[in-house]
Write a structure and sequence with these properties.
Elements (H helix, E strand, L loop, with lengths): L4 E8 L7 H17 L4 E3 L17 H17 L6 E10 L2 E10 L2 E7 L19 E5 L2 E5 L2 E4 L7 E4 L11 E5 L8 H15 L3 E5 L16 E5 L2 E5 L6 E8 H8 L9 E4 L24 H23 L7 E4 L4 H17 L6 E5 L7 H14 L2 E4 L3 H11 L8 H22 L2 E4 L3 H6 L12 E2 L6 H14 L2 H11 L19 H4 L3 H14 L3 H11 L6 H17 L1 H4 L28 H4 L2
Parallel strand pairs: 1-2, 2-3, 8-15, 9-10, 10-11, 16-17, 16-19, 17-18, 19-20
Antiparallel strand pairs: 1-14, 3-4, 4-5, 6-7, 8-9, 11-12, 12-13
Helix pairs in contact: 1-2, 5-6, 6-7, 6-11, 7-12, 8-9, 11-12, 14-15, 14-16, 15-16
Amino acid sequence: MNFEFLKTAAASPKLLPADVPHNQEEIVKMVWEVHHHHADVLVFPELALSGSTCGDLFHHTTLLTACYNALQSILRQTANSQVFCVLGLPLAVHGRVYSACAAFQRGRLLAVVPKYPLTPSELRFFAEPCPEPSTVSLFGQDVPFGSFSFADPNFPGVSLSIVFPAPARCASLLALCPGSGPELVGQARYRRMVLSALSAQSCCGVVYAGASPLESSADAVCSGHCLIAEHGNLLAESPLFSTGILYADIDTDLLLADRRTQYYADPLTCIPVTFQPCDAPLDRVIPQNPFLPACGLAERCEEILAIQSHALKKRLSHLLPHGGGHAVLGVSGGLDSTLALCVTAKAFQLLGLDPAQITAVSMPCFGTTPRTKTNAQRLAEQFGVTFREIPVTQSVEQHFADIGHDPDVHDVTYENAQARERTQVLMDLANAQNGIVVGTGDLSELALGWATFNGDHMSMYGINAGVPKTLVRVLVQHLAETAPEELSAVLYDILDTPVSPELLPPENGEIAQKTEELVGPYQLHDFFLFYTLRYGFSPQKILFLAKTAFAGVYPEDTISHWLHVFFRRFLSQQFKRSCLPDGPQIGTVGLSPRGAWKMPSDVGITLWSDF
């Protein structure tokens, strides 16, 4: 396994019903193909060795003997393969015929798992097994017979079990599902839903192999549908009515990270298997923007905007009986304040309040450019809110004189004084109006500590606190695509403006201080943030994932450099997050000290910096 990725495969063989020699040949070919692909696990459909549509032939000694001999031959032919295989076949043992799965690896039959429970139609051909595990004599050896889990001692917590679709829950980390049955209208959609739900509810991986489309079509047709899912996400899916092998890498580290907070007792007897770590390329796509959905982006954007606006609606409605109902926020012409103003306007609309009760404040100072200043005013006009321009240059210069700071020294004091002066203006305006200051800072800035302590770090409600920077951009883009023409034009120009706090003087009227040149690309930092907070991955694994996701986009040394920067800033800036104002969590990743993320402000960083 490569960084705890388990390479899995589901096969739909080119079988012929009751032609066991032909099926055996196809199965062996597939085992070796999967072996050369460096996969760890291969699942065949139910009754793949005989075909699942043999009917009353399942009771014929000729077919049963042929399957018995073919399984023995398959074990010999795959003795040098490391692949853990699950192969369905009809098996006559204990004087009865079972629909069973043989689990084998390196030519050794590890266990036989009989299907349970059976449908009424299956009971015509097969016996239901006794629930208690036992042994059967096969090929001169006693083989475990019943339900078991399989695990490699070198990979703690990684267990596999063979289940027949679809149980409500699976205690093992991977559910291996041999499938059968005809394809009916709507069946594929239902199958996706059930298997994805199983992987989500059990926090596990699911590998499903459906009956081959070359099964008999006398009364129905099978589709060979194969699916591989992980924790509610469909990783790979084969086309309907196709044969072949479907591959996907299941991240066992990701599954174990979520299982640490839950109890999954595995009551099954465990049988040891062996997996070989390998450096084969991943058979899965690592998304560059893990905060964004793979599909349904517009719907997701509307959902996030609804969460934000209703959160602010609740906070404002709490203040209305006390004479509240006003909101104050700083507008800079940047992405964060743009999103905050859009959400605030929506909250006021939900409450039926006059948008003029929103005060959008532009506070130009040393680094403000005409472009951002103009966009801030145009944005306020489009929403019909009260716009105020309050220059803070003289106030900051007076502050420099008071503390004895040389204004020609553009250090952290020079920058933070501006942010704190702006926050003071907003707070005092809110007090004068009996309103609240709506914070604009986003999740990415909080993670990096890219905020002035008790400056833009502080507000009375941080509406963007759960939204990472890459998602802020996507939300503003969505608003631009759906807004009236004049508002849309302003939003598109804001989207085209470089991200900057504008705390240093401009150069030739253009923004001189570009955030991503100082702290690194937000696309990378949001990637690092997601896998650090959501799953607690090691820096080494995050680096591996990032190199895979951004191959050809960023050089490897660039990714490594900014990952070091991320962990240094993230671990050292907790003191800013320990006293955050209220704000809604949007997704599974958050930094609120009241529940989403708890961490001392003085932790050591060595474990996360030495990689």
